[in-house]
């Protein structure tokens, strides 16, 4: 199997599939996760091709934009990989990464484990925190017409997977319901290292946000 050719074709496929996607889940999100994954993979003993394919295909059809249907992404990924003649073992591994990567309220029990999944999951979670994570959170909040902040609505950190998928709380609540939790859920040492810095940036942002909200600055 010509890995370079396969990755090139996968990139072209993903770009085409995500044309016009919401700004936090578009090709540029995939590209950032792909780059993060390569950085993390360089410090791990893992199958780099599976990491690359998992990173590129992990959000090929995010269920948030398909009425909560979690089967569309894996199906699209499988059809594409089969059309490229990828062996079944690799396809199955990539599909398992797609099916187990998401946060889903933090109460989702992962049914599959591999170092490749750990790498791609860390790469994806890094894109959900720090400056980019903040931008993505507010972009998605605007996309869903959510308020920025409502002091009367407390964050809910004990949501089930289904509650998390249906949540419509203010964007600031998302920091407490997901973003600030990710630092302690990283799998790899490199992921933990990068996450720590991005986590501090979010804490600084929130401090400034509340000060401005209260008219203190």
Could you please describe the fold and organization of this structure?
The chain has 217 residues and is an all-alpha fold. The protein has helices at 3-17, 27-41, 48-57, 72-83, 88-100, 115-126, 130-143, 161-166, 171-177, 189-213. It is globular. The model has no long low-confidence stretch (mean pLDDT 91).
* Share of helical residues: 55-70%
| Tally of alpha and pi helices | 10
Task: Kindly report the average pLDDT value.
Answer: 91
First CA to last CA: what distance? 58 Å
- The SS-based structural class is mainly alpha
Largest sheet: none
Low-confidence stretches: none
The strand count comes to: 0
Beta strand %: under 5%
Radius of gyration, CA atoms, in whole angstroms:
18 Å
**Basic shape:** globular
What are the secondary-structure elements, in order, as H or E?
A: HHHHHHHHHH
Can you lay out the helices and strands and say which pair or pack?
Blueprint: H1 3-17, H2 27-41, H3 48-57, H4 72-83, H5 88-100, H6 115-126, H7 130-143, H8 161-166, H9 171-177, H10 189-213
In summary, what is this structure?
The protein is mainly alpha-helical and 217 residues long. The protein has ten helices and no strands.
Give the key terms.
10 helices; mainly alpha; single chain
């Amino acid at each position: 199997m010509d890995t370079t050719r396969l990755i090139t074709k996968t990139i072209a496929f993903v770009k085409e599939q995500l044309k016009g996607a919401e700004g936090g889940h578009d090709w540029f999100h995939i590209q950032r996760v792909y780059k993060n994954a390569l950085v993390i993979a360089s410090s791990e003993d893992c199958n780099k091709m599976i990491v690359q394919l998992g990173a590129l295909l992990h959000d090929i059809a995010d269920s948030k934009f398909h009425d909560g249907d979690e089967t569309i992404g894996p199906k699209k990924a499988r059809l594409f990989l089969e059309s490229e003649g990828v062996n079944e073992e690799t396809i199955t591994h990539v599909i398992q990464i797609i099916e187990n990567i998401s946060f889903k309220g933090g109460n989702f029990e992962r049914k599959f484990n591999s170092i490749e999944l750990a790498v791609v999951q860390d790469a994806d979670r890094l894109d959900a925190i720090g400056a980019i994570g903040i931008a993505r959170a507010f972009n998605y909040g605007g996309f869903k017409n959510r308020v920025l902040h409502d002091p009367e609505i407390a964050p809910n950190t004990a949501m089930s997977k289904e509650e998390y998928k249906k949540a419509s709380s203010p964007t600031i609540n998302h920091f407490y319901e997901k973003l600030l939790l990710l630092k302690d859920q990283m799998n790899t040492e490199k992921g933990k290292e990068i996450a720590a810095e991005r986590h501090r940036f979010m804490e600084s942002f929130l401090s400034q946000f509340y000060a401005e909200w209260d008219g203190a600055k």
